[in-house]
Structures are given as C-alpha cells and as structure tokens.
Amino acid sequence: MPLQVLVTGATGFIGSHLAEALDGAGHKVRAMTRKPDEYGGAGEAVYGDVSEPDSLPAALDGIDAAYYLVHSLDSPDFEEQDAAAAAAFGQAAADAGLERIVYLGGLGRQDEDLSPHLRSRRQVEALLGQGGVPVTVLRAAVVIGHGGISWELTRQLVDHLPIMVAPRWVTTRTQPIALPDVVRYLVGVLQVPQARGQVYEVGGPDVLRYVDMMKRVAVIQNGRLLPVITVPLLTPSLSSRWLEFVTDVDKRTARNLIDSMSTEVIVNDHSIESLVPGPLLSYDDSIRLALADREKALQASQQEAEGPTA
Fold this sequence. Notes:
Layout: E1 4-7, H1 13-24, E2 28-33, E3 44-47, H2 56-60, E4 65-68, H3 78-95, E5 100-106, H4 116-128, E6 135-140, E7 143-144, H5 149-160, E8 164-166, E9 173-174, E10 177-178, H6 179-190, E11 199-201, E12 208-209, H7 210-222, E13 228-230, H8 236-246, H9 251-260, H10 272-275, H11 283-306
Parallel strand pairs: 1-2, 1-4, 2-3, 4-5, 5-6, 6-11, 7-10, 8-13
Antiparallel strand pairs: 9-12
C-alpha cells in the first residue's frame, strides 16, 4: 500500500537514491532539505532542518513514515549535535502521529569499545524512539557507491598512491554493501509490517580486510597491484592528516571514520535476507558500478560546462 514518506537528507549520497527508489515503488515522497528551491530530485521538496525543531512539524504533517539519514560527522561536536537532532526529530514524529521511523545506522557489536562515530549511531537509534514511534534500524558497514565518503577515501587513496604506507587498522575485517542493495533493503522494510521496531544487520556477500578492499580497487580501477606496507605507529590522528594531503575528503569527517576502522564490522544476524530477499552485488561488482556511475557523472558535468551544442 502506498505511503506518505518523508526522506531526511534527501540531497545526500543515500537519500537521493532512496527518494528515487521510493517514488518508483509508488510511495508519495516528501524530500526534506534546507534548500527546497534548489532541489531537483524525486518527490516534493519541503524545508526542514533537524537542528531547527520548529521546522519539523510542517515537514512531518500528514506523513506515515520517515527515513532518518542525517549526521554531523564534519562537526567537532557531532555527538552532541546528532543526539539533540535525533531527540527533536523523534519527538516531532511522535507529535505528528507517524507510524514508524527508518534509520540507517552502523554495524559493530555493543560489547566492543565502539568509536565515537559508532557510539553516536547507537545513541541516535535510541533517541529517535524515545517519543514512542517504532524505529526500524538497518546497521551497515561501508556503502559502496559513487558519492559515498568512505568509498571516495578508498578510491582516491588507490588512485593517487603507487605504494601505500598503511596503519594497522587496514587489517580489520568489514562487510561492505553496494548502494543499490542498501537502498533495496531500506525500501523493503517499509513494506513489511513485522519490521516495525526491529534492528537488522545488512552487508554484501564479501567479508574483507580494508587492505583487501583497496587492493581490489587498484586492480579494477587502475589495472595494477597495490603494494601495502603496514606501519603500526601510524595513529588515527596521523592517518587523518595524511589523508588531507592525498584526498579531498574533509579532514574531520575522515578522522571520525578512521576512528571506527579499528572495530570489526561484520553481519552476525542474517534475518534481513529472508525478510527482503534478493541477490546481493559482490564487492568487485560494486566497485565496477561505482566507477561507472562516477564516469557518467563526470561526463554529465563536462557537457553542462560546455553548454548546448550548435
């Protein structure tokens, strides 16, 4: 049954693709953005800012379910900002009578010493539901797709370095997932009543060390092997400073992500696979798709810069 759905972060990496997929599935999409006049994606644009609680009631009016896809990783006090925003949004959703909230969080076992980034994701899960609206949580590791920050870190490192001097965290295991698969899961749980209030772990078919991920990208993207030398004393702080010179990813965001890379993030609960069945893209195919989408985006940008042809 079609629903009235709000997508926060609708201009972002995952939100923009999710809004399009929800619209394609027949749902009525409302895209929440701080710049509705500039929005060109799927659905109806509406002004809203999770840091401005007074803007939320109008955005949520008449909505059945909302996707919460915002974070403040580029801010020095992102944990406090994200906590305040989640609490405000959860209460506004309750006041508006929403049926549920769907949130994309992060993998990682609760009994581990989670990084501030992953700890914040868990805190947001809890705060979103404090108003009483059931929250469906999907926990993922790295999402592979053009425009994703974690993917861009990997792609640019491999592209710019003939040899990589890497910290110890590159041997940590993770379970990346392709962008189309995480979007499929996000849309799928909305259509399953028993998913209300549940937590699911999502990942692709490959469990890899970060160093293996980078080596595969090097072969597929550049057709070459990537020599990697591990340096145990290369701390997260030094890693983020090093990334500042090698990539164009925001240093603070990179530091917060790197802090999480010493934590193993793999799927232990596979129940989502029977709830929302379907084949999953391999890591190698995810790379090829992300690179193809990047090439399309570059060509479109070049054509726009050149203007209409005579």
